[in-house]
Amino acid sequence: MIYLRGHETDYDDWGWTRDDVMYYFKKSENQTGRFSSDSTHHGVRGGVYISDMAYRTDLSDVVLSAAEELNFPRVDLNDMKSSPGVMEPQVTARDGARWSTDYAMRHISPDKKHLHVLTNSLVEKVLVRGGVEAYGVRFRRAGGTGEVRARQAVVLSAGVVESPKLLMLSGIGPTRHLVHHGIDPILDLPVGDNLQDHVTTGLDLILLNQSLPLSEKGVLASPFLAYEYFLNHRGLLTHPGCEAIGLFHVKGDATPDIQLMVLPAGLSTDAGVVMRPDMHISDKVWSEYFAPLVGRQVMTMLPTLLHPKSKGCLRLRSANPEDPPLINPRYLAVQDDVKTLTLGIRLIEDFINTKAMKTMGAKLNAMPIPGCQNHTFDSDVYWECYLRHLTLTAYHPVGTCRMGTNPSESVVDHDLRVHNVSRLFVIDASIMPTMPSANINAAVLMIAEKGADSVRRVN
Ligand SMILES: Cc1cc2nc3c(=O)[nH]c(=O)nc-3n(C[C@H](O)[C@H](O)[C@H](O)COP(=O)(O)OP(=O)(O)OC[C@H]3O[C@@H](n4cnc5c(N)ncnc54)[C@H](O)[C@@H]3O)c2cc1C
Does residue 98 lie within any of the structural domains? Predict the structure, then answer.
């Protein structure tokens, strides 16, 4: 996965100091790439391996040169202050293969003395004694139920969707909503509010006159790629999908507002096999917009809205733990979000017009998206229509168990303890009060390190 921390100003509103944030980023990280000697900004003793990409196409250098033409220098964005700027991304990988936190845990506790994992188990609620102290969880497994009792603390790390759901199923959440579902309320907290997500757009928006190796034929048709990956941990299959990354301040604020992720491909690249169903692209949009691009060289510069003003919410569908909750993301509900994303598209146009990108014949895909043909192509009105038809999640939801000081506005305190319940923590992306200017996994790792220190202090 792409490893990017965001900007130092992102965390000022969280109530954590910049020094603390940098300390825990460094603590989580085992930097093996080109920044490993920069001990001011990078750690080399953490559990998660961070490395340079093992493979990239020619597009990477072309886009980084284009950025320099536009006065966006090549920097280490993970120093958290050098934006606007661009970089070849770093990834959570070791020796060309993905490195995740579960590997990190096995690495830290190889004898498994301190780690017992129950797979195929669904936690259904937190056990709370007298409404004030958490003492374990109840779970379903193989048709039965079981309980796990905690000696020190219960930590929910079930993610932005399931952590708030579990709190509500346990009686912690908006009282009227819980009563509506027949759940005995313990604590009235704004669980499920404050849902935020990065949205992005611009799929297949750039056409090139040169071919790149990340095509349907390139990826699917070559057994040598699999051979190269499994034997040497090298080659196209190590590719994270992204060639260059940049943080920009299109509105001139101190905090970046648009991220560009450069992909040497588009939705049409796999001819509709994987990405089309994954992204729920309708038959009409596929056949009229994407299908004509199959076999042509497209690329994508995803402009991602880093700090959406639109906020959604999550609520229970029922009191059954197996029911998925109801989610209303309210994407682009606030008009200012459309304006910022439109500025992101204008930024892409600046890139397309650089000498560097013209060497690859870059031009805007001028085919109007179905539903927007009545607007003049490339007008602001057209782009608003386009955005409202082709904006997608970047899979970075946060915020449903928001951290803060006031229990009427937040769910956990600055040590990630649920307000007014002892021995109960939430430690995952759901505690973020606001969004980082980055893909969010690095911030989740930082939160986890900080949360682990809070749990250690419980006696
Ligand atoms: C397709 C995709 C691509 C992404 N790419 C990137 C990227 O390149 N870079 C980046 O920074 N971020 C990326 N992200 C985002 C990143 O993966 C998430 O933000 C991050 O994993 C969130 O971590 P978390 O610990 O909050 O939740 P999760 O990683 O979702 O972990 C929650 C865990 O809890 C378990 N769980 C949930 N409910 C229960 C229950 N009731 N009982 C038992 N277990 C339960 C789940 O199975 C899961 O294992 C991507 C996300 C997606 C979906």
Answer: no
Contact 325, 167 (CB under 8 A): no
Range of the domain at 235: 55-88+199-305+332-390
Residue nearest ligand 1's atom 2 by CA: 395
Q: ipTM, 2 decimals?
A: 0.99
pLDDT digit string (tens) for the chain, length 459 residues:
999 999 999 999 999 999 999 999 999 999 999 999 999 999 999 999 999 998 888 899 999 999 999 999 999 999 999 999 999 999 999 988 889 888 877 777 777 777 888 999 999 999 999 989 999 999 999 999 999 999 999 999 999 999 999 999 999 999 999 999 999 999 999 999 999 999 999 999 999 999 887 665 555 567 778 888 888 888 888 888 899 999 999 999 999 999 999 999 999 999 999 889 998 999 999 999 999 999 999 999 999 999 999 999 999 999 999 999 999 999 999 999 999 999 999 999 999 999 999 999 999 999 999 999 999 999 999 999 999 999 999 999 999 999 999 999 999 999 999 999 999 999 999 999 999 999 999 999 999 999 999 999 987
CATH number reported for the structural domain that contains residue 371 in this entry: 3.30.410.40
Ramachandran area for residue 120 (φ above 0: left; ψ -120 to 50: alpha; else beta): left
State the total domains in the chain: 1
Q: Does 182 reside within a domain?
A: no
Cα–Cα distance, 197 to 394 (Å, whole number): 7
160 marked ligand binding residue: no
Instruction: Say what angle helices 441-456 and 18-28 make with each other, to 10 degrees.
Output: 100
Question: Which residue is closest in CA terms to ligand 1's atom 39?
Answer: 158
Instruction: Report which protein residue has its CA nearest ligand 1's atom 6.
Output: 1
- The Cα 386–Cα 425 span in angstroms is 42
Distance 159 CA to ligand 1 centre (A): 6
Helices (H), 233-334: 275-278, 283-285
289: in domain: yes
Amino acid at 132: V
Q: For residue 188, tell me if it sits in a domain.
A: no
